[in-house]
Amino acid sequence: MSAHPLPILFEAVVAPSRSLSRRGLTLLTIALLMAALAMGVVFLTIGAWPVLGFTGLELILVIGLLHLHRRWSDRLLEVLVLTEGRLTIHRTDRHGAKREIALDPYWSRLRLEERPGQVSLLVLQQRDRQIEIGGLLGEEQKRDLAEALGAALRRWREPVFDNPQLREPPSPEAGPHQAGSRDAGEARPAA
């Protein structure tokens, strides 16, 4: 027997902002190389050739750190999935290690702690357990995630049922024969 997957009621993918594409990183690397080369020529012409070694080391360090940051940020990911009876947080850290945290959505409470001058925290709390989510997001994105996930959790906890038997009966619309009729107790004006 194959188990049928539960339908997904809410899903959010949280990833760090990647403002620089691979092509952009290549162009930045080329620009840094050209700037270092121009600086090296200037120092070489004024006779300060020992500076070339330090410039080269700085250049290697900066380019290496940019590429390392890009590689690590490509791996960072957080996926929030709400299904019937389960809220799951799938996390991948910068080294590629995956971790899954499962919570009961009925007992999970979402709290956004906005602190002036500091980074706000978005926390899922279940009894004594607190889990920070959305750590890769900016302030506005955290508010949006808190609003969307909060609404999804409320919809799950407080479903709206449509029972036709509980609906009010439709009111009879006034037909052409009822529009001109009067109550039996009213007197008609004499013609």
Give descriptors for this structure.
4-stranded antiparallel sheet, 3-stranded antiparallel sheet, PH-domain like, alpha+beta, 2 domains, 4 helices, 38% helix, 191 residues
Describe the structure.
The model is unreliable at 179-185 (pLDDT under 50). The protein is built from four helices and seven strands. The protein has helices at 22-45, 51-75, 139-157, 176-179, and strands at 8-14, 77-83, 86-92, 98-103, 109-113, 121-126, 129-133. The protein folds into two domains: 8-14 and 76-157, Roll (PH-domain like), CATH 2.30.29; 22-75. A four-stranded antiparallel β-sheet has the order 1-2-3-4. The protein has a three-stranded antiparallel β-sheet with strand order 5-6-7, with helices on one face. The chain is an alpha+beta fold and 191 residues long. 38% of the residues lie in helices and 23% in strands. α1 packs antiparallel against α2.
